[in-house]
Inverse folding.
C-alpha cells in the first residue's frame, strides 16, 4: 500500500476522497477500502504497471547461432505461398508461407511426433542439389519439423530456439543428401507457417 502511494500521487488523491466518503464512526468500511485499492491498481495499470514488471525482453540474440538473416527473411512482406504437396528446388530466394491442413487425417509421410486434433500439419517436396551439405530450417512459430529421406526422418544435427523473438521461434540443422526429400511440418497451432531454408555451411 505504501508503495502504491509513493508511486501514484493520483492514487493518493482518489483514495483520500473515497476515504472521506466511506468513513463512518471512525472505522473504515471494508468495501470502501477494497474499491480504493481497485482504483489505485487502475492508476498503476494506466501508467504501465508496478515498477519492475517490465515487458519481456526480446531474446533473439540468445540462439546458438546467428539468426538475424533468417529473421530478416521471415519479416519480409509477401512470402512465397506454398501448399501441401508443392515441389521446390533448393536453394530458395526468401521465406515461404506453407499452408497447412488439420493434422487429423493429413496425408503425412511419417507419423507426427507432436500435436493433436486441434493442430495443423503439411508437407512439401524438395529437390536438393549436390553435394550433401548442412541445411538450416528456421520457422516462425512452434512446430515439429521432420526432413524425410527414403521414408525415414533424419535426425537433426543441431537445434536452437528462442521464446521472445517476434516472428521467429526455432531453427534446426540437418545433413541433407542431394536428391528428392520431403519436409514435414506438424503440431502447428495455426493454419500456416512461415519458414526459411538456407545453407548452414
Amino acid at each position: 500500500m505504501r508503495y502504491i502511494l509513493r508511486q501514484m500521487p493520483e492514487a493518493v488523491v482518489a483514495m483520500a476522497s473515497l476515504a472521506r466518503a466511506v468513513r463512518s464512526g471512525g472505522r473504515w468500511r471494508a468495501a470502501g477500502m477494497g474499491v480504493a485499492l481497485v482504483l489505485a491498481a487502475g492508476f498503476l495499470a494506466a501508467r504501465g504497471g508496478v515498477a519492475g514488471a517490465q515487458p519481456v525482453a526480446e531474446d533473439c540474440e540468445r540462439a546458438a547461432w546467428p539468426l538475424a538473416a533468417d529473421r530478416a527473411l521471415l519479416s519480409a512482406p509477401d512470402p512465397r505461398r506454398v501448399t501441401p504437396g508443392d515441389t521446390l528446388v533448393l536453394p530458395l530466394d526468401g521465406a515461404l508461407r506453407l499452408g497447412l491442413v488439420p493434422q487429423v487425417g493429413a496425408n503425412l509421410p511419417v507419423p507426427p511426433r507432436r500435436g493433436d486434433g486441434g493442430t495443423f500439419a503439411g508437407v512439401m517436396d524438395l529437390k536438393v542439389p549436390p553435394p550433401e551439405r548442412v541445411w538450416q530450417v528456421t520457422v516462425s512459430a512452434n512446430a515439429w519439423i521432420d526432413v524425410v529421406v527414403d521414408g525415414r526422418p533424419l535426425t537433426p544435427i543441431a537445434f536452437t530456439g528462442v521464446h521472445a523473438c517476434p516472428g521467429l521461434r526455432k531453427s534446426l540443422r540437418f545433413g541433407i543428401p542431394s536428391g528428392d526429400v520431403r519436409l514435414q511440418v506438424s503440431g502447428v497451432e495455426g493454419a500456416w507457417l512461415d519458414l526459411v531454408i538456407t545453407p548452414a555451411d
About this structure: The radius of gyration is 26 Å. Residues 1-56 have pLDDT under 50 and may be disordered. The first strand starts at residue 80 and ends at 82. Helices lie at 2-7, 9-22, 30-46, 68-75.
